[in-house]
Design brief:
By secondary structure, this protein is of the alpha+beta class. Helices cover 31% and strands 26% of the residues. The strands form two sheets. The protein has a seven-stranded mixed β-barrel with strand order 1-2-6-5-4-10-7. Strands 8-9 form a two-stranded antiparallel ribbon. The N and C termini lie far apart (108 Å).
Length: 316
Amino acid sequence: MKQALILKNLGGEVSAAQLEAINRFSRRALEADEVYVFSLLLCDNAVDRDGERFSSGALQKLASLFVGKTGIFNHDPKGQNQTARIFETAVETDDGRVVENGEPYRALRAWAYMVRCPKNEDLILEIDAGIKKEVSVGCAVGKVLCSVCGADLRDQPCGHRPGEVYNGVLCWRELEEPTDAYEWSFVAVPAQRNAGVTKQFSAAEPGQLRKALESGQEVLLDPAQAAALADQLRSLESLAEDGRARLDRLRRKMVALAAFALPSVPAGTVGEVAKGMDAGQLEAFCRGLSSMQGTPPSLQLGGTSKPAPDNQAFCI
């Protein structure tokens, strides 16, 4: 589950241990009556509606990565959207439930705090009333594995589709080796029906980024990643321009060679044919036409053939 839930608020019941953990992130020591604490379920190890699941090891890693991460709205990383902060996490196990791979159900629970102030009064009221209940998390993972064949889909795409069953094995994408946790967000479920983990892609993963964009997944890039992607796009544009220039040269060469090798074929016709060819086809035709230029035309003598004379009368 990549869409998280606020499970319970603790009202004014803030323990001394929790207050000590909270004060690790504050510039001054806060009092218990100054903070509002609530718990939430960030993610678990069950296959979600996107056909993905976090491994148990990934949950343990995320538990440490999410400590200190801020809560915002709708994954919009603006400073004014910061509203709460996680100060404690734990991976909890329910031995009475099993997930798709037979493991016990495990979930990453977090405890977050916000300051009691006029600005947050309405949000606290909405949390208490169950209006603000759903959140989703933004993180990055190092591996995305196919549950059927074990291929890392980042560099070894396979044909197995999440949700399909292959020889009795359900296909899903296993999210492994988290590398960073960015934020967690309050989301309006009706507005974001696909609320879930916001995928992060580094500049070294253009193929994976393209797949995400084609599938309609939400993609969040930090400034460095956006700059790297812009550099890649500029490089691709330059390569595309070089490719177009090369094709143009090959087409002109083919037309010129055809004028000598196939003089009966109009140059315009050859040019139209060349437009539909790729570089490999153009090079092959140019080689063929070049070889034809060195072959003398075959002689064709006119006149009608005559039967050979009958010399039987002169046979001795």
